[in-house]
Design brief:
The chain is mainly α. It has a single domain, classed as Serine Threonine Protein Phosphatase 5, Tetratricopeptide repeat (Alpha Horseshoe), CATH 1.25.40. 56% of the residues lie in helices and 0% in strands. The chain has helices at 4-36, 39-46, 62-68, 72-81. Helix 1 runs antiparallel to helix 2 (39-46), helix 2 (39-46) runs parallel beside helix 4 (72-81) and helix 3 (62-68) packs antiparallel against helix 4 (72-81). The radius of gyration is 17 Å and the shape is globular.
Length: 104
């Protein structure tokens, strides 16, 4: 039988695990929205305040993904939401292209 201290500890571990899973699910959802760049879907995902600079399995943030696919509408949405324009990906250890307009 589990004592109350162990129960509290394992309950906290379970809650932390759930929160981490939700964070990754939101980041994954943002990456998916970036890959297809449907502005309405992107706005919906952004309304849940996901982590904008999480990297996917390739080390890319959602901003990297939309820039690579030249999806300017979604580039603007991510920058307006606060995505880090100086983020670097794992494959190219350099910043995003300096050609990004400052007003985006």
């Amino acid at each position: 039988m589990m004592d109350s201290v162990s129960f509290v500890f394992y309950s906290h571990v379970a809650i932390v695990g759930l929160l981490v899973s939700l964070a990754f699910a939101q980041a994954g959802e943002l990456h998916q929205a970036a890959r297809v760049c449907e502005p309405d879907r992107m706005r919906q995902v952004l309304s849940r305040h996901p982590s904008l600079n999480e990297t996917d399995e390739n080390g890319m943030t959602p901003l990297h993904i939309v820039i690579d696919s030249r999806q300017t509408a979604c580039v603007g949405l991510l920058l307006e939401a606060g995505a880090d324009r100086t983020a670097r990906d794992r494959t190219e250890p350099q910043q995003l292209p300096p050609c990004l307009p400052a007003e985006l």
